[in-house]
Amino acid sequence: MSIKVYKPTTAARRQMSIISADGYTAHEPEKSLIVIRKKHSGRNAQGKITVRHKGGGEKRFYRLIDFKRDKFGVPAKVMTLEYDPNRTPKIALLYYRDGEKRYIIAPADLQVGDTVVSSKEKCEMKIGNAMPLEHIPVGTLVHCVELVPGKGAEMVRSAGSWCKLMAIDGGFAHLRLPSTEVRMVPQACFATVGQVSNAEHMHVIIGKAGRMRHMGVKPTVRGKAMNPVDHPHGGGEGSNPIGLKHPKTPWGKPALGVKTRKHHKPSDTLIIQRRKKQV
C-alpha cells in the first residue's frame, strides 16, 4: 500500500493525504461477520458526557474479528484484504476448509491466496500463523499477543506495530513491546507471527477539520483561549502561558503527561524494564 497525496486544488486539499485503495481486494464486508455499531457520543449509561469531543461521524458497521484464533489445526485461505473503519490495519477474510469464515488482523506482506493456520503445537513459522509463544523461536517479531491464555489478543494490534520475543524463561515469555517496555507474558499465550499491516498509516495527513468530523471527532478548544470562568488556564490580555505550576483539566485535575496507571498494580511484577521516556 502507499500514500496518495492530493493536488492542492483548495487550501484544505494542500498536503492532504490518504492510504491508497490499491491494497484492498474487496470493498464490501462479509455480511455474516458485521453487526451494527451503536454510537454513544462519549456518554455513559446516565447520559452524561464522560469523554469529550465525540459525536457525529459516518455510520459504521463493526467487523467481528477473531482475536482468539481458536480454530486449531484447520487451514484457512486468505480470500480478501479489506478496509476496516474501526481500526488502523487492514483485515483479512479467511475461508476455512470446513466452510467457516472469519476475519483476522492482516499481517504485513500477507497476500490473497495464502494459507494460514492456528495450532496449539509448533507449526510452520509463516506470516499469519498463530501459536503459543513457547513454540515461537526467540527473536521473532509477533503481534496480536494475549495477556491471559485463551482470552484473545489484547496487545500489539494497531497498524505497523510489532513486538519482539526476547526469551523464554520460567514459564514466561519476555517481550519487547512497541513502547520499548520489556514485559513477561505466560508462555502459553497465543501470538501471531509477523508485523501488523498498514505501517504507512502514521504518515497520513488529515488536512482539514471536516475530515475529523467525518471520523466522529468534534472540535477541541484550548483552555488558554477561554475565560477564567470556563477553564483554569483562561484569562489574561492577549496570548498568555498557562500560568500554573502544573497544567489542569477544566475541573482542576492535573493534566498533560500525568501518569494514570494505578500504583502497586499486581501486574507490575511482570514488567522487567519500563518504557523509555520520549524526548
UniProtKB/TrEMBL annotation:
InterPro entries: NA-bd_OB-fold (IPR012340), Rib_uL2_dom2 (IPR014722), Ribosomal_uL2 (IPR002171), Ribosomal_uL2_bac/org-type (IPR005880), Ribosomal_uL2_C (IPR022669), Ribosomal_uL2_dom3 (IPR014726), Ribosomal_uL2_RNA-bd_dom (IPR022666), Translation_prot_SH3-like_sf (IPR008991). One of its GO terms (cellular component) is large ribosomal subunit. GO terms for biological process: cytoplasmic translation. Pfam families: Ribosomal_L2_C, Ribosomal_L2_N. It comes from the Bacteria. Keywords: Ribonucleoprotein, Ribosomal protein, RNA-binding, rRNA-binding. Residues 125-254 form the Large ribosomal subunit protein uL2 C-terminal domain. One of its GO terms (molecular function) is rRNA binding. SMART domains: Ribosomal_L2, Ribosomal_L2_C. The keyword Secreted does not apply. PANTHER family: LARGE RIBOSOMAL SUBUNIT PROTEIN UL2M, RIBOSOMAL PROTEIN L2. HAMAP family: Ribosomal_uL2_B. Part of the 50S ribosomal subunit. Forms a bridge to the 30S subunit in the 70S ribosome. NCBIfam families: rplB_bact. This is Large ribosomal subunit protein uL2. It comes from Candidatus Falkowbacteria bacterium RIFOXYC2_FULL_48_21. The gene is rplB.
